[in-house]
Amino acid sequence: MFSKAFIGVDPGKTGAAALITDEGIHDVLDYPGDPSLIVATFRGWLLNYKIVMAALEKVSARPGQGVVSMFTFGRNLGAWEGIISAFGIPFMMPTPRQWQKGLIDQKAGNDTKARSLNTARRLFPDAELARKKDHGRADALLLAFWARRQWVN
């Protein structure tokens, strides 16, 4: 019998995907810049786990964000959505506000990225989250944690 697993995806340029299981196993894939490089990891996850749910962060344009930046971001989001859909993985697209509510410790840092990192470090103490730039990994792990919570409830 396969272990149940949950996936979280931060679709940003420095984002990541993370898989977590009820047994405490976790795996993280930093966004490689080329969507085709995501496929092998997802295939491996599907061969080893019963993926119950994925959470793909639904983000939108921010004030002052350039046109090229927004276009690139939209392509990344679409690539992640396409890959998840192609593998037949059920998924939700929570906004940052939705998944962070009740999960992110608001006293854990000065900004959103620091709070996310500190919360993920607490929940996943053996994850590789030492660097400030690991906030994409942290968000992916927390999104997977959020997906698991939604499925359980």
Q: How is this structure best described in words?
A:
This protein has 153 residues and is an alpha/beta fold. A hairpin with a 4-residue loop joins strand 2 and strand 3 (26-30). The model has no long low-confidence stretch (mean pLDDT 90). It has helices at 36-48, 67-86, 96-100, 112-123, 135-152; strands at 3-10, 16-21, 26-30, 49-56, 91-92. A five-stranded mixed beta sheet has the order 3-2-1-4-5. The protein is 44% helix and 19% strand. The protein has a single domain (3-152), classed as Nucleotidyltransferase, domain 5.
- Report the sheet-strand fraction: 15-25%
User: N- to C-terminal separation?
Assistant: 23 Å
Helical residues, percent: 40-55%
State the CATH class.
Alpha Beta
Shape category: globular
- Quickly give the CATH architecture: 2-Layer Sandwich
- The total of beta strands comes to 5
Largest sheet report: 5 strands, mixed
Q: How many structural domains does the protein architecture include?
A: 1
